[in-house]
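W.,

You were right to be curious about this one. When I first looked at the sequence I had no strong expectations either way, so I just let the prediction run and decided to look at it fresh. Below is the sequence, 444 residues in total, followed by the output.
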Amino acid sequence: MTASLNARAVAAQALFKVTSQQQSLTPVLAAAQSQVSERDQGLVQALCFGVCRHFHSLNALSKILLDKPLPENAQVIQSLVWVGLFQLQHTDISPHAVLHDTVEAAAQLGLEKYKGVVNAVLRRFQREQVQLVAGLDSSDVTRLNHPKWLIKQLKKDWPDHWQHICEAANAHPPMIVRVNTHKPSVSEYSHRLNDAGIEHSASALARTAIKLAKPHPISALPDFDQGHCSVQDEAAQLAALILQPQAGERVLDACAAPGGKTGHLLEYANGQAQVTAMDADERRLQRVHENLARLGYKAHCLVGEAQHPESWWDGEAFDAILLDVPCSATGVIRRHPDIKLLRQREDIANLAALQAEILAKAWTLLKPGGRLLYATCSILPAENSANIASFLHQQTNAKLLSIKDKISDLKESVYTTDTGFGWQFFPNPNGHDGFFYALLEKAK
């Protein structure tokens, strides 16, 4: 394939890999963008993200509009139809350009005989759009663009929050930067952003965070390469503010990649903590090295798993542990909308069991009097408060600590709640992602 490829064709191929082959959008999208001109890379991303974000309604529409199911060897045309419908319903792209380029994409996919099918589907949608879109409101699945199992679980877990959660998960996330306050202060960096013409506001949650009014390339951020700031959601920035690593302490970041929280732990301790950054994936651990190099900090990086310390631990206990465990990532769907397509109901119990295993093992690595911060980017109690409740029932030497005094503006709201076993953050359309934190102390 060459750089002249139709962006719609490339997007359709990428979406086919996600929906039919259950591949993650992040690597698929990176490969797809390499197939088109630099000018079209943003369009490919917008099409892939948009279709995943609105998948359930687009899929329902396509089933109505396609007269009969497509044969096995033409399933990528289904993805192309989603791409066309998304553009007509959710973008300002000229309908003429949408029809022409989407229909032509069928030929570039080697399925020229389906050009008529694609054309007929999109033109029918144009004619019947009002009534077709109105019909989507009859189902929570198509109205909120979430899978049925997840809506059902959210209704059960969060009867007062579930609709806000779904709506926020469909919104475009804000771009948040974390200021390395050992270089410029937040106030100083705010002045630099003003000088660069970048509109922004202070975070109401994390004192190191600044929210940009609109996304900017990192190359536009003042002194980014010198480590004066990092891109990180404001809820994720709370990890270091809650754990509060101190100079001289031995600290474990147990699931470190890509290294955003590792860097913040070192920033908080002004580079004076002895941080071990561990991850099970050696390739992802390289991202940790790169992030630390940019920030000008050092950590002991190693490949390993917290639930198997016998393969890497030197036997010396840690003063503090950040345990950002693998999870369903249901709190960051707006940043990774393919989660709605890839995650399945049965995954949750398996993840919760793995998290409990990791927590139990990591606890044995902690010094008496030490503290462990359990964190996920999930909004499901099975992975969060239920795990902590079970752990506290089993571990008589564990105590749950309050985090309210560490976060000045933390209060109950439609986007945050104290579960009694840790704080749950729900995705906020104008702020933080969905996250969970529970701070535990080991008895002396």
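Here's what jumped out at me. DSSP finds 17 helices and 13 strands in the chain. And, maybe more interesting for your project: The chain has three domains: 7-142, 175-231, 238-442.

Coffee later to discuss?

I.
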